[in-house]
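LOG
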Amino acid sequence: MKYFGTDGFRGRANEGLNVEHAYKIGRFAGWYYGARVEKKARIIIGKDTRRSSYMFESALISGLVASGADAYMLHVIPTPGVSYVTEEGDFDCGIMITASHNPYTDNGIKLVNHNGEKMDEEVLEQIEAYIDGEIDVPLAIGDNIGQTVDFMQGRNRYIAYLIASANFSLQGVKIGLDCANGAASSVAKPVFDALGADVYVFNNTPNGFNINVHCGSTHIEEMQSYVLRNHLDVGFAYDGDADRCIAVDDRGHVVDGDLILYVCGRYLNQHGGLAKSTVVPTVMSNFGLFKALDEIGINYVKTDVGDKYVYACMREEGYSLGGEQSGHMIFGDIENTGDGIMTSLRIMEAIRAEKEPLSALVRPVKLYPQQLVNVKVTDRDAAMNAPEVLEAVKKAEEFLEGNGRVLVRASGTEPLVRALAEAPTEELCRQANDIVLAALEPYRA
């Protein structure tokens, strides 16, 4: 598609994504859903804390009400909160204004359907056609003009839902929260406070410019030092819209999405909560995770990179747990999108039930060193399908003798081919990748 990628319409604010785009998205959504239900559409809007989110919120609302929809404002809330409220409140669709873990200068618009799932591509294609002037949408007039509704109660319902999902006490547990100066800033602490934890929160004073700046899940070293300095039991770091979570254990070690998948998958499997004894990682998950899962008899089905592919596989095959290295986890028994705060709670559930610190729960997994090399090429398809490149990948894996792997994949947005090697040592990674890089040399840009 021209504007919408795997995670919404995203770009530098007022450059790649501007207020006219936002207004037109609102105009189309308000008309489309009103026409479908033959009544006023009810559409929910949330945003993260970046300065431009307020501008895009105003543009979206203007478009929605001009097309006859009623716009319900959640204000600052995590992306999964929008999904939850959309489904729970029986709204026609939900809109989230965020650029996730990107800098404050960027922004984006994500849409979810009435089930709180990523918007159907056919709807997004129609929105793109309207943005490009290929479709006409009438303006509402008279009594048909929509209204705005302050819906702070929706955020409160989301907080209550998170609290209710935890059937355990965190009394006496010292927990650190890095809110990335983003959407988690007004939600995460109340949840853990209600469960009785001793909460140590930081990076929760957003000013419009400091979202994701040297904080959150993309700068986990902040949480590592914070956990050790304050002698915490565990720490959780979120990204700007709080749909991701990276943990830090009691020893200050990073617990990424692969390790979270192992801890939660093992716990759920032991208690009959892991559908088909299967988890859904992506092809980029660490080889060490796969070996550890093999050792405890848990199956895995790998998907392409992207939470949309993880969720699609889970939904189609009936699996209940999947996720990415980045900390984007989906617990299919209770949600249909990634939720960083919910991920924190599920980790705490495993810690409390097993009566073990997080450092002990992740110990069986020996993550392999990884080396990722991006190669700029003149033609991605030609490079990916070249016989000599395919043969080089085969030779590299033979070189590793089954104790590692080599993965070559094309970037979805740039003229790049990514070569990833995993092996027991950094040197073996380098040697395996060198075999592939030599074959890619003729295709370099």
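LOG (cont.) second protein
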Amino acid sequence: MSEQDLLEYLDGEMTDPVRIAEVEAWIRKSKENREMAENMYYVLHSAKSLHVLEHTDTRKAFERFQKEVGRKRTKTFFMKIVRTFEKTAAVLILPVCIALGYLFFSGDDYGNQTIQISSKSGMVTKVELPDGTLAWLNSSSTLKYPIKFEGKQRKVELSGQAYFDVAKDKKRPFVVDTKYHYSVTALGTEFDLFASENDECIETTLVEGLVCIDFNDSKRKFSQIIHPDERLRFNARTGEMVVDQVNADNKTAWRKNRFVFRETPIEEVLMELERFYNVEFCIADEDIREVSITGTFENEQLYQILDYICMAGDMQYQLSKTEGNDCSGHRNVIVIK
């Protein structure tokens, strides 16, 4: 994989579906490849955060970062990335720190500015927000937040899936807004929220503390508190709401690049794989919906997981077609039969 191809992909400049598929396949090929890509992605987002404040060019900021860490160019681009990140990992997983540092020393008022972080397909992006809250973005997810939280609430906007470890602040609730007039409010807690622009079903899973979920549109309105190891599933089209008991640690293992299934219905298994690997599954045989899966997968490629699932459930899978419906311009459809 060339330096130019990877930079174009991570910076959102690549538009050719074939080249995009090649880069994503390379990222998923090994744990080392994914870590290299994630490290590069953090640097680019750090530069983008700074760009919001001083209107610098992302690539020039990236080059400036390389010079400042004082590392000489090695034989390969990727070896340099690995060595650089060994000494600067704490900064790179917190891209907003650059922007906040600039704000502190400049004394300028950027309270109305926002930062947008987007996680690429098959990658998990970690970011620290201005109040100290940690957020992990699942594959193909986007988070918007202000450079500085002001007012009585700490409000962010999510499209996709994210895990939040919320910094405690009893005077200012932390609010996550999503599409469909659905929001989650917390003071200091840990929870997982899935709310995709392309999916009418929304899920909130609580790990620790309490959260209040609010929905309010022209037809329906409700408020619901959930407790640890509870999941609220809401269909924005039908208004159906279900609260059930789950193992929250297993449901949120994706942020550590793990999937843990314990007698999990096949539809839920495929749904989690869809979110992480940015694919779509089609179940061709209705009897398959009765299958449950048990297994733990860590840093596995999608086809390896599918091989196990199909062997366990006496099924087969087949790549069907490609359709354009996301920012990458394509989405693979896999038929389970």
